[in-house]
Amino acid sequence: EAGVTQSPTHLIKTRGQQATLRCSPISGHTSVYWYQQALGLGLQFLLWYDEGEERNRGNFPPRFSGRQFPNYSSELNVNALELEDSALYLCASKWDRRTEAFFGQGTRLTVV
Amino acid sequence: GENVEQHPSTLSVQEGDSAVIKCTYSDSASNYFPWYKQELGKRPQLIIDIRSNVGEKKDQRIAVTLNKTAKHFSLHITETQPEDSAVYFCAASDPGNTGKLIFGQGTTLQVKP
C-alpha cells in the first residue's frame, strides 16, 4: 500500500512569490492535515480538509490556504511568501479523525 | 486551546541505558496521545500511542505511561541502541474532536555507542 506522498520534495521561492505544495493521502483516507515544521520547532497545525471541505485552520494568516480535490488529494498554497515561511511542510492523512495520522515525507520550502 | 510541553529538549544516553521523555498537556478533554519518531530528513513515524482509558502501554523496548489526573504522559525506551537516535515528538489530540494533533517541541535523543 502506498503511503502519503508529497511533491515537490524541495521548493525554492523568492519573497513575495506564491508556492503550491501537493499531497496525496493513503488510499481510502478522506482527511488531510497540513502542518508546518520550522527549523528547531515542533509541528504547528495549519489546515484540515475532509470530504472536500476546509474543516479547521490553525493560527496562520489567510495567505495560507488550500483545497481538497474529489480524489481527496490536497494542495496547500502560500501567497506573498515571507522569509519566515521557510520550513518543512508536512501533510498527514487519516481514515477518520479518531485514527492514526500517517505523514508524508514533507516539502522543504525555502524563501530567499 | 490545548498546549503541550515536552522535556527535555535534548537527551544523551549511553547505549544500553534507558531514556525517558516527558510531556504535559493542558486540556483534560484530550483523549489520544501519540509519540512520533523523526529521523534526520525523514517523515515523522508513529512509534506508540495511548488513549485516555489506559494507563500504560508497551511495545517491546518502548512504553508509554499516562497520568490523567496530573495531565502528563511519558515515553520510556529501554536498552537504547544507536538507531534510536532521532527527534521524538509527543502530541495530544485536539479536545474539539477535529482529529488534529497538538505537538510538543520535540526531544533530540542521542544514543552513544
Question: What brief labels describe this structure?
Answer:
heterodimer; A: 112 residues; globular; B: 113 residues; mainly beta; six-stranded mixed beta sheet; five-stranded antiparallel beta sheet
Give a description of the structure.
- The complex is a heterodimer of chains A (112) and B (113).
- By secondary structure, chain A is an all-beta fold.
- Helices cover 0% and strands 52% of the residues of chain A.
- Chain A is built from no helices and 11 strands.
- In chain A, strands 2, 4, 5, 6, 9, 10 and 11 form a 7-stranded mixed beta sheet that branches.
- Chain A is globular.
- Chain B has 113 residues and is an all-beta fold.
- Helix content of chain B is 0%, strand content 56%.
- Chain B has no helices and 11 strands.
- In chain B, the strands form 2 sheets. In chain B, strands 2, 4, 5, 9, 10 and 11 form a 6-stranded mixed beta sheet that branches.
- Chain B is globular and about 45 Å long.
- The mean pLDDT of chain B is 95.
